[in-house]
Structure formats: C-alpha cells, structure tokens
C-alpha cells in the first residue's frame, strides 16, 4: 500500500508539480519548435514518451550494473547520451520495417529527440533522486505525460495567438515566452501538493 | 568496417582522456567537498575552530569542533525532516558542549521561495539560540509551543522544529548529558 | 582578417544563439537565477564549444559521414565531463547551484549545431573564432537575463545585496515564470532596438 501511494505521489509530481517544461526547464527547444500545430505536437509527444521511458530504464540498469560496481561514474554522461542516440536510431530502423505509417508520422521527430534535453535530464534525475527501478520507469513515463500536457496546452494557445493583435516587437517568439510564463505561473499553484 | 573502427578509436580516446582527468580531479573534489562542509560549520559556530573531528554514527554524522587548547567547543550534527511543505529539509545544527543551540544552517530545502525559504533567514533563526531539548516546548506558537512561526509558512517552521529536535536527540544519544555536567 | 572579425561578432547580435537562433534555451531559463550562475554556465558552455570545435575541425576529414553524428556527440560528451569534473573540484558551490544542467550541456543543440554546420567544414583558425564568438554571445545572453532576474527577483547583484534582508523583492522573477517572462521581454526589447537602429540607416 505504501509503495503504491509513493508511486502515486511520483506520478502527480512528475505531471503537475515538477512539470518537465514549466518547473524543470527541460525540453524547451521542442516545446517552442513543434507546438505550432496540435497533431504534430502529439506526434512529438508520443515519440518522446517512448524514448524517455526506455532510455531511463536502460540507463538505470547500466548505471547500477556497470558504472557503480566499476567506480566509473564519470562515464555517466557519455554512456547515457550514447544510449539515447542509439535508441533513437534503433527506433527509427524498427519503425521503418514494422509500421510505415507510424514511421511517416513520427519519423521526422526522431533525430530531434537525441538533443532533447528532457530525455537525458529525466534519466539523470532518476539516478540523482535514488529512485528504485520501478519508480524510475514510472517517473520517466509520467514526466513524458507532463511534457505532452505542456506542449498540447501551448499548441492550443499558439493557434489562438496567430489571430491575436500582438504589438510588433512581441510578435512570434516573445509573446510565446510571455504565454509560457503565465502557464508556468498557473502550474506553480500545484506546489505543496506533493511532499 | 572503417566507420566502426574509427568510432571505436574515438570512444577509446575519449574514455582514456576521461580516466586521466578523473584521476587528476579525484583528490581536489574530495578536498573541495570537505572545505564546503567546513565552511558551513564555521558559519554556525560563533568561535574560531582550530580542528574538526568527524564522528559517524549509524544514522548521521557529528562534527566535534576543538579550539587551540584542544578543548571541545561545539558539536555539529546533520539532521533532516520530511515534514517540509515540499518534502525534505536538511539542516546542520550546532550546539555548545552543554547542548545549548548555537545556531543552524539549512543545507537543502525545496520550500516556497519568499515564504518557506525564510527558515534560513537570521530573523527566524535567532530565536533558537540557547534553547535545549528540555527548556523548550518544541512546537510552534499556533500549536501551543514556544517557536515563533513565520506568517504563511507554519508548515516549514514546524518542519524546522522537527529537524532540530531530531538533531538534539541524536546528539544526546551520542554524547549523554552526564559527561557535560 | 575582416572575415575573422565578421565570424567573431555575428555570435553576439546578428546570430546570437539565444535571442536569435533560440538554441540551448533550457540552461538559459533554468540557471539564470543569479548572475554568478549565468556567467558560470556561459563560460562552461564556451569551454565545451571551443574544445569540440577544435577537435572536430581537426578530425572531421578522418571521420566517415556514417558515424559523423555519434562521433561528434562522443567528443562533446568528453569535454562536458571534463568541465563537470573541473567544476566539482574547483567550485563546489557552482556545482551545487548548476546541478544537473552541467551534464546537460551535452544536449545543448547550439554545440552540436556549430560542430555540424561550422567546425566540420572550416579551418581550425576560423573554428576557434566561431566558438569564442558564439560562446561569448551565449554567455552575454545568459548574463543579461540573469542580471535582470537577480536584481528584480532577489534584490542582489553578483550576490551583493542591494536592499535589506527584509525588503520585499519581485519574487516572481526568481521563480520559473520569471525566466520565461524575462527572456520574452529581453527578446522583444532587442527586436524593437534593432528596428530603431535599422530605421536610421
């Protein structure tokens, strides 16, 4: 019972309280880049979810199976980024073979994911917080859900912003940041919800 | 084949380079960590520390501070609580040899900036000076105790009181009172 | 020489990685709560950029195109780890406040971007100038935003208090929303400044 409520807290925390985009500032580039349209935002979101969850799981195994026993924790950064880069390649190859339609819709996002700092960030945070294997995987999956929530919200706002009469110097990017600030302010209301 | 060989060479080169750098920085990193601890301890004690002795118990770590005459001047202890508004608060607590509080320093917290983070401001910390496990009702005023809480940050203040009590108890266990009397 | 000067200066304004290209924004938003953090992150990133640009410019001909990206990432990750270890050894305070964002320099898209778009196609000398220009441009943007946030949010400048301990500061600028709003305002400010200067020509 205790474990389940612990996991529940991790889930709420990952989606709302410590949202990857609004509280941890991870994955800002794709957040601004692909959130112009709702459906591309969703595609990116699913690709991120997949890679983030698996990368965190593999990273966890490698960290505690190889880096810690051999006392080479300094290789952590290199190892994790290589895991992510090869995972992305693998996913690309498998998708191409298995489902052409899924590849066509997700394919363009895959190379972008390697340099999505949310993936590496979440994998590193799971290690830093001393999460167990199950908690790490749950944390990674729901952090990705938090990411999807953020880009969906933002995509919706952006579609409205296109028609808004924005002062010239604020057009496009600056007004995007201002909206993100207001969203982030709203997300701060969740703080204290989870200990 | 060539790409794989080249990638392997790049990998070996970078791993070797990192092993060397890691070897060179291992000691400075340990020293730097030690110095940071020492700086924190110096901040909570109102006297000059000549030497520090680290004592590790099962739950926590104690630091005995000695003066030039090798007389113990104070004891610091690492203590923490999970009762904060946003989780864990870690505190370094310093007491005199007769176990009166000299001061504390918040090492880690995630309390709300502007409200809960005032637990690390001198205005709030001041009231802990001279308190002991016995002479104080370790609850905030709202709960009928002696600790003045910060408006809108009662939970954070309760948590600090909780951590401080834990620290005092740890010290009392490690250094039974009779020896000081 | 003119060419070199051009490569050097464009990183500051015309192609500033932060305000113009919108690259590497995560650390820009995350660590700019104080000027010391902003400066530290900027210089650490500049170091990595310089190291990776030098190595990649020298070695790019030997690296076949099929493994180009993985090799670049390896080189960048190596320099990031070196910086990480050096910061841990010589500035533990900075290490504590920058935290996870030091290893995350690896995925700063600006660095891979420069390696791919510039260093692998240009001579060593130009690659060095490009790295320093872009790195300092990045640092400049970080410093600008962190000064803005530190002064308004914490009432200090380079950790030196400007107001008393009890004074109320505009806290929101020290918090996540302030990072987004601050960057938005700065980019808007630079936009209108540029327009005014352009109009005079």
Nutshell version of this structure?
Chain A is mostly helical and 195 residues long. Chain A is 74% helix and 0% strand.
Account of the 3D structure:
The complex is a heterotrimer of chains A (195), B (181) and C (201). Chain A has 195 residues and is an all-alpha fold. Chain A has helices at residues 2-17, 28-33, 38-67, 76-98, 100-106, 110-114, 117-128, 133-161, 173-188. The longest helix of chain A has 30 residues, at 38-67. The mean pLDDT of chain A is 86. Chain B is α+β, with helices and mostly antiparallel strands. Chain B is built from 3 helices and 5 strands. Chain C contains 8 helices and 2 strands; from the N terminus they run H-H-H-H-H-H-H-E-E-H. A two-stranded antiparallel ribbon of chain C has the order 1-2. The longest helix of chain C has 31 residues, at 124-154. The relative contact order of chain C is 0.18. The chains are: A mainly alpha (195), B alpha+beta (181), C mainly alpha (201).
- Structural class determined from secondary elements of chain C: mainly alpha
Shape of chain A: globular
For the largest beta-sheet of chain C, the strand count, sense and barrel status come to: 2 strands, antiparallel
The Cα radius of gyration of chain C reads 18 Å
Alpha carbon gap, first and last residue of chain C: 25 Å
- Provide the low-confidence segments of chain A as ranges: none
Task: Give the amount of beta strand of chain A, in percent.
Answer: under 5%
Number of DSSP strands of chain A?
0
Radius of gyration of chain A: 18 Å
Task: Write out the strand line-up for the largest beta sheet of chain C, numbering strands in chain order.
Answer: 1-2
Please give a handful of descriptors for the protein shown.
heterotrimer; A: 195 residues; mainly alpha; 0% strand; globular; B: 181 residues; alpha+beta; five-stranded antiparallel sheet; 3 helices
Q: Layout of SSEs?
A:
The complex is a heterotrimer of chains A (about 200), B (about 180) and C (about 200).
Chain A: H1 2-17, H2 28-33, H3 38-67, H4 76-98, H5 100-106, H6 110-114, H7 117-128, H8 133-161, H9 173-188
Helix pairs in contact in A: 1-8, 3-4, 3-7, 3-8, 4-5, 7-8, 8-9
Chain B: H1 2-44, E1 51-56, E2 61-66, E3 72-84, E4 87-95, E5 101-108, H2 122-125, H3 154-174
Antiparallel strand pairs in B: 1-2, 2-3, 3-4, 4-5
Chain C: H1 2-10, H2 25-30, H3 35-59, H4 68-90, H5 92-98, H6 109-117, H7 124-154, E1 156-157, E2 160-161, H8 176-200
Antiparallel strand pairs in C: 1-2
